[in-house]
Amino acid sequence: MKKQSFFNRIVFVLNYLFALLLCISYLAPYVSVKSFPFLSVFSLSLPLLVLVNLLFCIYWSLLRSKRFLLSTLVVLCGYFLLDSFLKFKFYEDEINDGDLKIMSYNARGFNINKWNEDNTIGDQIVNFVIQENPDVLCFQEFSRIRNNQLKNHYKYHFIAPDHRVKKSVQAIYSHYPIINKGEVVFKNTANSTSFVDILYKKDTIRVYNLHLQSLKVIPDMNTISNEESSKLYERIIKSFKRQQEQAQIIKKHIAKVNHKTIVCGDFNNNQYSNVYRTVKGNLQDTFNENGTAYGRTYNFKYYPVRIDFILADDSFNVTAHKNYDIVLSDHFPIMAGIQLE
Fold first, then answer.
1. How far apart are CA 69 and CA 319, in angstroms?
2. If we measure between CA atoms, which residue out of 274, 282, 267 comes closest to residue 27?
3. How does DSSP classify residue 341?
4. CA-CA distance, 139 to 78, in Å (whole number)?
5. Highest mean pLDDT among 132-146, 162-176, 221-235, 283-297
6. Element (H, E) at 20
7. Among the four residues 114, 226, 297, 330, which has the most C-beta atoms within 10 Å?
8. Sheet holding 203-211: strands in order across?
């Protein structure tokens, strides 16, 4: 009995530590990366910390100990303070023909750099998006050589930046007229943001296509564990600070828009970050409104991560959100169905 009692004391100390870490991670969305950069790292581990605390809840519940209240209360606080990383809805609503269908997809250059030995990946991506036929399609890490295939299916498109600018290429394709287009320039980075105004049902909608600063992390736990922790931390923090600057630029740009707004893209950060919170503002996250399960969008082994988003003005009704499980890039495509209320 004494051994068991001592063991449970050790477990409770660990429980207390992980509950404290989870509480600290709750602050990440509300605190600027520049003020407390270490908090941004906690935001990446928040789902894992929730899982660990749930395991503590189960352990103490099986022992019928009141100690289960510690992690239970901490997890419940997070449920009300932050968006859940798991949606307890395991079926996807169909996107109706009458909906405006928006797709966002980081296509990793359509395999132009041969990250995969399969030479048909580029054609597979083109065939996939044509089959799904979104009304508005936002590509990050686009390849210009695919424009000839896609422009035959989409009457309107905008590719940015200019081919003379050495930045990651983005593209927006639309079945509806593009009446205005432009870029939001990020300095000292290969990332950028573009936007278009489309004419839809006698209304004008601003669509942003974001690609925020990359963390330059290879999606493999073995590779990460082999990198020196201090260097990894410094690189991630540096990227987060860049993202924060870019998020502020986007926030100010959106504030000047008089049209209904949709923001798509690869944020390179999750929904618990201050970066995400800054860009989101009062917009709806289509996954939160109508998503299912984990909603992972990045192919990180053993750890579901959601870093690609579709955000919509609150004047829209989000009818559906779909996550695709096709491995043609390091990201998974997402699509939302929305209606004008």
1. 37
2. 274
3. -
4. 33
5. 132-146
6. helix 2-25
7. 297
8. 178-184, 192-200, 203-211, 260-266, 308-312, 284-285
